[in-house]
Design goal:
Blueprint lengths: L1 E5 L4 H12 L3 E6 L12 E5 L5 H8 L4 E4 L12 H16 L3 E5 L13 H11 L1 H16 L3 E7 L1 E3 L8 E3 L9 E3 H14 L5 E6 L1
Parallel strand pairs: 1-2, 1-4, 2-3, 4-5, 5-6, 6-10, 7-9
Antiparallel strand pairs: 8-10
Length: 209
Protein backbone atom coordinates (compact mmCIF):
# COMPACT_ATOMS: atom_id res chain seq x y z
CA UNK A 1 0.00 0.00 0.00
CA UNK A 2 1.15 3.55 -0.70
CA UNK A 3 0.83 5.43 2.60
CA UNK A 4 1.31 9.15 3.22
CA UNK A 5 2.33 9.94 6.80
CA UNK A 6 2.13 13.54 7.94
CA UNK A 7 3.94 13.89 11.26
CA UNK A 8 6.55 11.17 10.74
CA UNK A 9 9.61 12.64 12.45
CA UNK A 10 8.77 11.58 16.00
CA UNK A 11 6.40 9.72 18.28
CA UNK A 12 3.60 7.70 16.77
CA UNK A 13 4.38 8.88 13.27
CA UNK A 14 7.96 7.65 13.42
CA UNK A 15 6.86 4.32 14.88
CA UNK A 16 4.30 4.02 12.10
CA UNK A 17 6.89 4.79 9.44
CA UNK A 18 9.22 2.08 10.74
CA UNK A 19 6.49 -0.53 11.08
CA UNK A 20 4.98 0.28 7.68
CA UNK A 21 8.33 -0.19 5.95
CA UNK A 22 8.92 -3.44 7.82
CA UNK A 23 5.51 -4.64 6.64
CA UNK A 24 6.39 -3.95 3.00
CA UNK A 25 4.44 -0.75 2.42
CA UNK A 26 5.66 2.22 0.40
CA UNK A 27 5.77 5.34 2.55
CA UNK A 28 5.80 9.03 1.72
CA UNK A 29 6.62 11.32 4.65
CA UNK A 30 5.69 14.99 4.46
CA UNK A 31 8.00 16.75 6.92
CA UNK A 32 8.87 20.34 7.66
CA UNK A 33 12.49 19.56 8.50
CA UNK A 34 13.92 16.56 6.62
CA UNK A 35 17.07 16.66 8.74
CA UNK A 36 14.99 15.32 11.63
CA UNK A 37 14.19 12.17 9.65
CA UNK A 38 17.46 10.35 9.16
CA UNK A 39 16.04 6.97 8.13
CA UNK A 40 16.69 5.87 4.57
CA UNK A 41 14.89 3.09 2.73
CA UNK A 42 14.20 2.21 -0.90
CA UNK A 43 10.45 2.38 -0.21
CA UNK A 44 10.61 5.69 1.66
CA UNK A 45 10.17 9.06 -0.03
CA UNK A 46 10.67 12.18 2.08
CA UNK A 47 9.02 15.39 0.89
CA UNK A 48 9.82 18.71 2.50
CA UNK A 49 6.68 20.69 3.20
CA UNK A 50 4.21 21.96 5.76
CA UNK A 51 0.70 20.69 6.35
CA UNK A 52 -0.39 24.34 6.31
CA UNK A 53 0.82 24.69 2.71
CA UNK A 54 -1.92 23.39 0.38
CA UNK A 55 0.48 22.96 -2.53
CA UNK A 56 2.89 20.86 -0.46
CA UNK A 57 0.07 18.64 0.75
CA UNK A 58 -1.29 18.31 -2.77
CA UNK A 59 2.10 17.28 -4.12
CA UNK A 60 2.55 14.64 -1.45
CA UNK A 61 -0.95 13.24 -2.02
CA UNK A 62 -0.36 12.14 -5.61
CA UNK A 63 -0.42 8.36 -5.93
CA UNK A 64 -1.38 7.63 -2.33
CA UNK A 65 -3.84 4.98 -1.17
CA UNK A 66 -4.11 6.06 2.46
CA UNK A 67 -3.22 9.02 4.64
CA UNK A 68 -2.12 8.84 8.28
CA UNK A 69 -2.21 12.13 10.13
CA UNK A 70 -0.11 12.06 13.31
CA UNK A 71 0.96 15.67 13.85
CA UNK A 72 1.50 17.13 17.31
CA UNK A 73 2.74 20.31 18.96
CA UNK A 74 4.20 21.25 22.32
CA UNK A 75 2.28 22.77 25.19
CA UNK A 76 1.08 26.29 24.42
CA UNK A 77 -1.46 28.72 25.82
CA UNK A 78 -1.73 30.59 22.52
CA UNK A 79 -4.63 29.97 20.12
CA UNK A 80 -4.01 26.83 18.04
CA UNK A 81 -5.23 26.26 14.48
CA UNK A 82 -2.67 23.89 12.95
CA UNK A 83 -4.77 20.75 13.48
CA UNK A 84 -7.94 22.07 11.88
CA UNK A 85 -6.30 24.15 9.16
CA UNK A 86 -3.90 21.36 8.24
CA UNK A 87 -6.66 18.78 8.20
CA UNK A 88 -8.72 21.00 5.91
CA UNK A 89 -5.81 20.98 3.45
CA UNK A 90 -5.47 17.20 3.74
CA UNK A 91 -9.16 16.56 3.12
CA UNK A 92 -9.21 18.86 0.11
CA UNK A 93 -6.15 17.19 -1.40
CA UNK A 94 -7.66 13.77 -0.77
CA UNK A 95 -10.81 14.85 -2.58
CA UNK A 96 -8.85 16.13 -5.55
CA UNK A 97 -6.72 13.00 -5.85
CA UNK A 98 -9.51 10.53 -5.14
CA UNK A 99 -7.83 9.21 -1.97
CA UNK A 100 -10.46 7.79 0.37
CA UNK A 101 -8.73 6.33 3.43
CA UNK A 102 -7.73 8.54 6.36
CA UNK A 103 -6.58 7.60 9.84
CA UNK A 104 -6.06 10.55 12.16
CA UNK A 105 -4.55 10.46 15.64
CA UNK A 106 -5.97 13.02 18.07
CA UNK A 107 -5.95 12.14 21.77
CA UNK A 108 -7.86 11.40 24.94
CA UNK A 109 -10.04 14.41 25.69
CA UNK A 110 -10.94 15.17 22.09
CA UNK A 111 -14.58 15.02 21.04
CA UNK A 112 -16.78 12.77 23.13
CA UNK A 113 -13.73 11.31 24.88
CA UNK A 114 -13.66 14.43 27.04
CA UNK A 115 -14.05 13.46 30.66
CA UNK A 116 -12.55 9.99 30.24
CA UNK A 117 -8.95 10.76 31.16
CA UNK A 118 -9.21 10.43 34.92
CA UNK A 119 -9.60 13.06 37.62
CA UNK A 120 -6.11 14.59 37.47
CA UNK A 121 -6.04 14.81 33.69
CA UNK A 122 -9.63 16.00 33.26
CA UNK A 123 -9.61 18.58 36.06
CA UNK A 124 -6.03 19.89 35.94
CA UNK A 125 -3.76 18.81 33.10
CA UNK A 126 -6.08 19.28 30.15
CA UNK A 127 -7.74 22.57 31.19
CA UNK A 128 -4.52 24.17 32.45
CA UNK A 129 -1.99 22.95 29.87
CA UNK A 130 -3.81 21.59 26.83
CA UNK A 131 -6.98 23.63 26.52
CA UNK A 132 -6.14 25.52 23.30
CA UNK A 133 -4.64 22.41 21.71
CA UNK A 134 -7.71 20.30 22.35
CA UNK A 135 -10.07 23.03 21.27
CA UNK A 136 -8.45 22.75 17.85
CA UNK A 137 -8.39 18.95 17.96
CA UNK A 138 -12.16 19.17 18.45
CA UNK A 139 -12.41 21.29 15.31
CA UNK A 140 -10.15 18.83 13.51
CA UNK A 141 -12.33 15.88 14.45
CA UNK A 142 -15.48 17.71 13.38
CA UNK A 143 -14.02 18.37 9.93
CA UNK A 144 -13.08 14.73 9.50
CA UNK A 145 -16.41 13.41 10.72
CA UNK A 146 -18.27 15.70 8.32
CA UNK A 147 -16.11 14.68 5.35
CA UNK A 148 -16.77 12.07 2.69
CA UNK A 149 -13.51 10.27 3.48
CA UNK A 150 -13.33 6.73 4.82
CA UNK A 151 -11.99 7.92 8.14
CA UNK A 152 -11.00 6.46 11.46
CA UNK A 153 -10.11 8.71 14.39
CA UNK A 154 -7.69 7.24 16.93
CA UNK A 155 -7.59 8.67 20.44
CA UNK A 156 -4.72 7.06 22.33
CA UNK A 157 -4.61 7.03 26.09
CA UNK A 158 -1.49 8.25 27.88
CA UNK A 159 1.44 7.59 25.59
CA UNK A 160 4.62 5.78 26.56
CA UNK A 161 7.77 4.69 24.77
CA UNK A 162 7.10 1.11 25.81
CA UNK A 163 7.45 -2.01 23.71
CA UNK A 164 5.16 -3.30 21.00
CA UNK A 165 2.80 -5.73 22.73
CA UNK A 166 -0.12 -6.05 20.29
CA UNK A 167 -2.26 -6.42 23.41
CA UNK A 168 -4.49 -3.38 23.80
CA UNK A 169 -8.15 -2.49 23.90
CA UNK A 170 -10.01 -0.75 21.08
CA UNK A 171 -12.99 1.03 22.63
CA UNK A 172 -15.79 2.78 20.77
CA UNK A 173 -18.32 3.08 23.60
CA UNK A 174 -16.84 5.16 26.40
CA UNK A 175 -19.49 4.88 29.09
CA UNK A 176 -17.73 3.98 32.35
CA UNK A 177 -14.28 3.91 30.70
CA UNK A 178 -11.19 5.75 31.94
CA UNK A 179 -8.16 5.82 29.68
CA UNK A 180 -4.91 4.22 30.74
CA UNK A 181 -1.49 4.02 29.16
CA UNK A 182 -0.54 2.75 25.72
CA UNK A 183 2.78 2.67 23.88
CA UNK A 184 3.35 4.61 20.72
CA UNK A 185 4.45 1.36 19.12
CA UNK A 186 1.07 -0.23 19.84
CA UNK A 187 -0.80 2.77 18.46
CA UNK A 188 1.20 2.42 15.24
CA UNK A 189 0.43 -1.29 15.20
CA UNK A 190 -3.29 -0.60 15.40
CA UNK A 191 -3.11 1.90 12.55
CA UNK A 192 -1.45 -0.61 10.24
CA UNK A 193 -3.88 -3.34 11.25
CA UNK A 194 -6.81 -1.03 10.59
CA UNK A 195 -5.47 0.02 7.18
CA UNK A 196 -5.50 -3.65 6.22
CA UNK A 197 -8.80 -4.67 7.82
CA UNK A 198 -11.00 -1.54 7.66
CA UNK A 199 -12.94 -2.75 10.68
CA UNK A 200 -13.62 0.70 12.16
CA UNK A 201 -14.60 2.91 9.25
CA UNK A 202 -16.16 6.23 10.27
CA UNK A 203 -15.59 5.52 13.95
CA UNK A 204 -13.74 7.36 16.73
CA UNK A 205 -11.84 5.02 19.02
CA UNK A 206 -9.98 5.02 22.32
CA UNK A 207 -6.83 2.88 22.45
CA UNK A 208 -5.62 1.82 25.89
CA UNK A 209 -4.31 -1.18 27.81
Amino acid sequence: MNILIIGATRGIGLQLLDQALQAGHTVTALVRNPQRLTKQHKRLRVITGDILDPEAVQGAMVGQEAVCLTIGIGVTWKPVTVFSAGTRNVLESMRREGVRRLICVTGIGAGESQGHGGLLYDRLVKPLLLNTIYADKDRQEALIQASEADWTIVRPGFLTNGLLTKKYRVISKLSGVTAGKISRADVADFILEELAANRYLRQSLLLTY
